[in-house]
Sequence to fold (78 residues):
Amino acid sequence: MARKERHIVPNPKGGWDSKRENAERASKHFETKKEAMDWSREKSKQEKSELIPHGKDGKIQNPNSYGNDPCPPQDKKK
Fold:
């Protein structure tokens, strides 16, 4: 099963967009990155998807999984 992703990306005209992976258009546009992160975090939880924020330079910053994590952390206590 392919994982679902939601990206927070800078909009070339200003502000930030929340987009599903491979989407041409944004799901929603925001003035601030914080607003985009808050809304997208809730959507990612509902969708059980990966939340992938990008910086102004386009680089990925601190992704977080709210669904089927392909690399879940291992329990160190055994």
In short: Helices lie at 33-47. Residues 5-56 form one domain.
